[in-house]
Amino acid sequence: MVSPVAESGHWNTQSPKSASPPAEKSRLRFMTCGSVDDGKSTLIGRLLYDTKAVFEDQLSDITTGGAGTGEAIDFSLLVDGLAAEREQGITIDVAYRYFTTGKRSFIVADTPGHEQYTRNMATAASNVELAVILVDARYGVQTQTRRHAYLAALMGIRHVVLAVTKMDLMDFAQEIFDKIAADFDAFANRIELNNVTAIPVSGLRGDNVACTSASMPWYSGPTLLDHLETVEIRSDDATAPFRMPVQWVNRPGLSFRGFTGRIVAGQVAPGNRVRVLPSGQDALVARIVTMDGDLPVAGTGQSVAITFDREIDCSRGDVIVDSEAPPEVAQQFETTIIWLGDEPMLPGRQYWLKTATKVVSADVTDLKFLVNVNTLEHLAAKTCKLNDIGVCNIALDQPIAFEPYDVNRDLGSFILVDRITNATVAGGMIHFALRRSHNIHWQPTSIDRRARAALKGQAPRVIWFTGLSGAGKSTVANLVEQKLHARGLHTYLLDGDNVRHGLNKDLGFTDADRVENIRRIGEVAKLMADAGLVVLCSFISPFRAERQMVRAMMAEGEFIEVFVDATLAEAERRDVKGLYKKARAGLIKNFTGIDSPYERPEAPDVYVDTIQESAAAAAERIVTKIIEV
Amino acid sequence: MLLSTRPIHRPVTRQMSPSNRIFAPLAHLKELEAESIYILREVVAEMARPVMMYSIGKDSAVMLHLAQKAFYPAAPPFPLLHVDTTWKFRAMYAHRDRMAQEAGMELLIHTNPDGLAQGIGPFTHGSAVHTDVMKTQALKQALEKWGFDAALGGARRDEERSRAKERIFSFRTPHHRWDPKNQRPELWRLFNTKIRKGESIRVFPLSNWTEIDIWQYIRFENIPIVPLYFAAERPVVRRDGAWIMVDDERMPLDQGERPFMKSVRFRTLGCYPLTGAIESSAATIDAVIRETLAAKSSERQGRVIDRDQSGSMERKKQEGYF
Ligand SMILES: Nc1nc2c(ncn2[C@@H]2O[C@H](COP(=O)(O)OP(=O)(O)OP(=O)(O)O)[C@@H](O)[C@H]2O)c(=O)[nH]1
Ligand SMILES: [Mg+2]
User: What pLDDT, on a 0 to 100 scale, did the predictor assign at position B18?
Assistant: First the structure.
């Protein structure tokens, strides 16, 4: 017989909600990290196996498919889930696994040890409360151990277990363990990791993983699992003042306007006075709306929808906060960044910055130093490369509400995204707002740009000539200026070589310097356009991102990109200044087209093919374009 | 070589007895719920044209329920998409139509027209061809047809070991390919949703849920699911060590073979010829939870398509399978 309850699809069991309230089990998110091949995946596999979180079919998968046969199961295959990982016997990306015991439920992230995959380790580290740092008993503390310990500390992980593993290969000797624990401690103290519990284990055999080891009677501390089950994890977020970044405004009809989001600190109740930042308007909370009915109060971690007692401006990216204890609003910060991009960081280049639910434009204004993760020395540098950790100042294109990362992870963390490739190139943590951003205000002037341009009877323009060296930028730009001048327009021509004699004489030709070169020229061109001029800029400007950056500085429609195109072969054949010859001979480094890239404009406003068209004809077209718009 | 001293295996019972654990830790489920709602809202706030994949199973049921919570009092601001192989259980079709209607959401259904014309099916072409043509290719067609830039899927990381590796916001090339060796870093709760034209993102709001979380949540929230998840007497035949339900007349029977009635239920639902049932008498949700807690094999074991070759899920996913 078919049970009517079940087959109906709906059921009314003995009203589940009236069942006696369950004992609340907490959840711990932790990760493993450490150097290559230290045995991280093996340890996690063993932990899953010993807590009976592995199904029989999964076990048979790894005993037939993997190297392990008989009783020696290769536990790492339980977590190394990608074909490439199993082929190479390494971990490439994070594996997330879940298990539960009578005391707690766990999410564990097993991370790769290879330096190449540090960004995957950082991905895991940003979301855990505890890190198990593994050290191979045979090799002791390695550079990569220090790097991971440093990253863990940097990302605010307060609880660390030092698991000295493969003790079976070192005869379970106490001296080995003591020595490694002492070495690690010395480093941990310097990076302010104060909560380190050291445990000697064998991941392969399970000693001190879930079961006390008979081979190490000298060790009387907890097993790894005991420790994970009992370590007390506390967060101050719940008792901090209320903060909720607005995710999305819910307005199904005219009568309802709910501001949705996840509460990242404190709690909120109807009647509370809150403030919307950065605008600074106050309102009272009217309702906390959920599908299960209105809530009398909501706390940290909950996803809710809030309505106000009055109409105020509030949208995605704003932060709703306790009006009595609002966080700071600022536009420039000192931060630590972890560079995750394959392309190096370039100061001055504009990146997307996402923090909480807000996306703005930002650039690194000053890279103060990089950190050597081994010695903790500060190193002077002009760029950050993959896996570098740097302290730098950043400037945003608009102010945001924030908290230092130490105070609140959600309001103090950010990512940088490349505007061209869309790759996530950095993770960052805010230290504090720069005073500058509080004290420097824009001085309003009474004669504005429109007035200045009107007096000259012209519309300001920035004409940007880009192309390879020798493509003919300066020739065309010169002709254009002559023609404009003849028509009585006020112009100015900024040329690459000339600028490098003065304003930019401190800059070379590395990628970083090229970006700064263009940034300064952009600022100068902007001032001149402000003065009402038609500014002609003739620069190789090889990177799309910088041309984009300059375009963004100018008013809508003011920027005209002219792509002066010639094939590399043709430019090299012309070689007016003899530079290509020198570059080919290796006498000039970082020469565009030879050993430094040129990114062609995808949609220039004017395209000039200098092989097909004469400079004079091209100049005439450009003038028409300037005058017509 | 293994040494002789082995660790002492204390007989610790780490798992509480199953009957005690029917009542899930509420705090834990509430946290999962809040996280999923956050993810759903990020998708709607940042993506131009999202869609929710609706496969009618228990995970889809939970995902749909979470979407209703995320956008309440509005209906979820995206359509549901069912990629129909035409080989689902009949009870699933009935459930699908009812749920879409109750949620007040648009339901889009797509079947690969080429596959249909060629009469592709699991019995005639085998599970690998059927899955590729009627699921993977069909899904890509559907995403392109309607121009979706984000597809929400109910996959969980605990289902399979290559899924355990996937990001919550998982980037896809214009050819819908997943590159597991080169995934975007995903720090904090800051999801990078920037894509170029033609590229898309698969989003998995249930990434951190486990099978038992799903069941316990279904119980606490009273979420309607397809009755096939509960044990009942059903006509089955034995195929390759699996109990296959004879759901319609398309099932070819060997000479003299007769389906017989057996009390079975399903841990996952898909195309009926490819979905093995388990012997069970668990006819209520509490009984199902009890059995799930005591299960010795994973829920995927009943899925014929996952066992074709080892690592086959990863390969299928790279090609665009959900
Ligand atoms: N004898 C012994 N061997 C171990 C132990 N733990 C791990 N191994 C072996 O060490 C090797 C590397 O183990 P993995 O678990 O893959 O190391 P990993 O740290 O995860 O490596 P990556 O993730 O690639 O950095 C394997 O051959 C393991 O079998 C142990 O406790 N004792
Ligand atoms: Mg590993």
Answer: 34
B136 touching A, CB under 8 A? no
Tell me whether residues B15 and A102 touch, CB distance under 8 A.
Answer: yes
What backbone torsions phi and psi does residue B131 show, to the nearest 5 degrees?
-65, -45
Per residue in B152-199, pLDDT (tens digit) is 999 999 888 888 889 999 999 888 888 888 899 999 999 999 998 889
Q: Closest Cα to residue A263, out of A319, A316, A315?
A: A319
Q: CA-CA distance, A91 to A292, in Å (whole number)?
A: 43
pLDDT of residue A61: 66
**Cα B56 to averaged position of ligand 2 atoms, centre (Å):** 36
Is B55 strand, coil or helix?
Answer: coil
| Side chain identity, residue B250 | R
Residue nearest to atom 32 of ligand 1 (CA): A166
Cβ contact, residue pair A24, B181, below 8 Å = no
Q: What is the pLDDT of residues B256-300, one digit of tens each?
A: 788 888 888 998 888 888 888 888 888 899 888 888 888 777 776
The token pair that represents A390 in the structure block:
């740097």
**Nearest-CA residue of chain A relative to B283?**
A6
Sheet containing B107-110, strands listed edge to edge, beginning at the edge strand earlier in sequence: B107-110, B80-83, B50-53, B150-152, B200-203, B169-172
Instruction: Scan residues 144-163 of B and list those with Cβ closer than 8 Å to A.
Output: 157-158, 160-163
| pTM, rounded to two decimals | 0.78
Q: Are B294 and B268 spatial neighbours (Cβ–Cβ below 8 Å)?
A: no
Q: How far apart are CA B172 and CA A313, in angstroms?
A: 36
Distance to chain B for A71, nearest Cα, Å: 10
Matching residue, tokens 């979905």: B275
Q: Which of A330, A335, A351 is nearest to A394 (CA)?
A: A335
Q: A66: CA distance to ligand 1 center in Å?
A: 14
Asked if residue B1 has pLDDT above 80, the reply is no
- Looking up tokens 């401006």 gives A313
Q: What was the pLDDT predicted at B198? A: 87
Q: Which of A287, A284, A290 is nearest to A303 (CA)?
A: A290
Chain A hits for B183, Cβ within 8 Å: 93, 120
Neighbours of A587 (CB within 10 A): 10
The predicted pLDDT at position A441 comes to 47
Q: How far is A431 from chain B (nearest CA, A)?
A: 17
- The yes-or-no verdict on residue B239 having pLDDT over 90 is no
What stretches in chain A show pLDDT beneath 50?
1-23, 64-70, 438-441
| A30 alpha carbon – ligand 2 mean position (Å) | 15
Burial class (CB within 10 angstroms; exposed 0-12, middle 13-18, buried 19+) of B276: buried
Contact assessment for residue A361 and residue A384, using Cβ atoms and an 8 Å cutoff: no
- Look up the ipTM and state it: 0.85
Judged on CB neighbours under 10 Å (0-12, 13-18, 19+), A7 is: middle
A403: nearest Cα among A520, A478, A322, A481:
A322
pLDDT tens digit sequence for B60-98: 999 999 999 999 999 999 999 999 988 888 889 989 988
Query: Which residues form the pocket of ligand 1, taking CB atoms under 6 Å from any ligand atom?
Result: A 36-42, 76, 90-91, 112-114, 165-166, 168-169, 202-204
pLDDT of residue B302: 64
pLDDT at B301: 66
* Cross-chain CB nearest to B2 (options A72, A105, A251): A72
> What per-residue confidence (pLDDT) applies to A409?
93
